[in-house]
């Protein structure tokens, strides 16, 4: 369960191994039953990959096929590892180790260091920035704050790709990496940084992996001991594995093949840190007898959101794109994604805040709404706009929930009240567990109504309110539970970093949003130069930016809004253009044409290809009947207000619907996957006579033009369509 999931309920532990399999779809069940040999699970966004692999582990444990202590499940963030531990505990497999690569390696390093090296393990350097700054000063190189951060990132990249300082310049040249300083200069700083660490007897996080690899390579007795302990491995988010992590995994495995990996090449968004999808894409080459299972049933997002996500990837290029998964939504239809163009950034932030306020008024909880942007510097204007609108928010990437001062204080107070039991006068009038918690937390600042405005006081209240909601859910799930039981639950959650939901709109970068989901997502600042970011020069870098946007789109369950501003500040020159990635997807944008690797910079316009349907319109979309500005996606698709008279050919519309039903039957997909009703209405209103006219209609991208264009144009001309599209 993540901070963005719907519920904090406490499900009952399944009674048997077979009960663990209940509720899994056929593909998830196949994953759960694939307990032997190498297994590769290709899982699209929202397809229940964590559910599948945790049920796989739990089924193996509950059925007595694998011992809990023999399983090591690794992932990439403490939050993801905590979520996995929480789910395994709920499934009755609490003895399984679920850790990040670094956590697992550090545990082994601490245990075996005295035997392998002698003495105590050097102190772990929590933050390397200060030491990098000192190394740069020793090399007589002046770095500002941004350069210092960038050079630190370069050192981290070099270490996870197993590049030593002397080889750094050559490695940068070979990888076509965009270096923030002269590579030779960074190589010198890197070498000095390593020297300073040795002098001070400290290691950094990358050293944890490097040293563990070194010990396992040199000490076969230690490697054998670890392999006897861990006999079954599960790796989540396998597309994000770095060469160093893959080397460690190989050493853990030895000559065995009891490995299950889960990933999606289309969600590779961390290559700048050394992550590469190559290990996932080459899995069948390395393991020819591997079981490969695809998860494509999307339980998270509506068909409208999934359609946009699929369309975004349909334009992708490169090796990862060749292995993309076509998602199929399992949810009821929802609203069309909204595309909005604003005059400037403050207007975009204010418009976004107004829409968020309307959603909250319509019943969408603030905690189920997110505003996602490309870089953290974009958050300030949205913080201000939400505060002005009276909307609570939280910044993703702040300190962890259980490390907040007010949460620690609340834990101490609850623990004290639990020990006092009936002797605490504070609990005299509290009839049940939630009432007891409310009484205790009222001494720490919790009130029945939230404080006005935003800021530190509101943040503190939101944290305490999350604990109150957790107590309410806990009491419903476990009638008769005591305050001591709740304290034990909180301790377990703190150890697993399994945080309850905080009620406030989430502001986060697209990278920080990976692995989360919300009912409503606002993707903002989608202009050339920001998405893709201006320093994405090569084809590969641009494609990673596209995948980053795909990750953003697939965070939305129901409501999805995409917006951009034509200038930075009010009155500024309207020189910006919407992201090229929206070409062929947003209403009136025409098909996607060829775009160079570097594309265009800020203000350089979208793709300048001359394909049919290219438009130069900068302003808002206007109704073709009355001239009013259109804001709703459905109206923009029709290019008219819903209330304006339609000149639709009813007979043509019905023929198109009949044809669509036949195509959907052949393809084995819902009719809306061919064309939505709104798209068919737009076609019947405009009666296109050529590819160029057809492709200008929203919902008819280049891909669907290739698939269905000939049939649609034939129907519009009063002719019979021909040919099957099953192969397409």
Strand composition percent: 5-15%
Low-confidence region ranges? 1-8, 592-619, 724-728
What does the oligomeric state look like here? single chain
Q: Please identify the structural class as seen in this structure.
A: alpha/beta
Overall form = globular
The CA-CA distance between the termini, in Å, is 38 Å
According to DSSP, the number of beta strands is 16
Describe the structure.
It is built from 28 helices and 16 strands. With 728 residues, the protein is of the alpha/beta class. The strands form 4 sheets. Strands 3-2-6-7-1-8 form a 6-stranded parallel sheet, with helices on both faces. It is globular, with a radius of gyration of 28 Å.
Key terms for this structure?
728 residues, alpha/beta, 6-stranded parallel β-sheet, 44% helix, disordered N terminus
Short account of what is shown:
With 728 residues, this protein is of the alpha/beta class.
Secondary structure elements and their pairing?
Blueprint: H1 17-20, H2 26-33, E1 39-43, H3 49-62, E2 71-75, H4 78-90, E3 97-100, H5 101-116, E4 123-124, H6 129-138, H7 145-160, H8 168-175, H9 183-200, E5 202-203, H10 205-218, H11 220-229, E6 232-235, H12 243-253, E7 259-263, H13 278-281, H14 283-286, E8 291-295, E9 297-298, H15 303-314, H16 319-322, E10 328-329, E11 338-344, H17 345-361, E12 369-373, H18 379-388, E13 393-395, H19 405-420, H20 433-441, H21 456-477, H22 483-496, E14 505-509, E15 518-523, H23 539-553, E16 556-567, H24 633-638, H25 650-667, H26 677-686, H27 691-695, H28 702-716
Parallel strand pairs: 1-7, 1-8, 2-3, 2-6, 4-5, 6-7, 9-10, 11-16, 12-14, 12-15, 13-14, 15-16
Helix pairs in contact: 2-3, 5-10, 6-9, 10-11, 10-12, 15-23, 17-18, 19-22, 20-21, 25-26
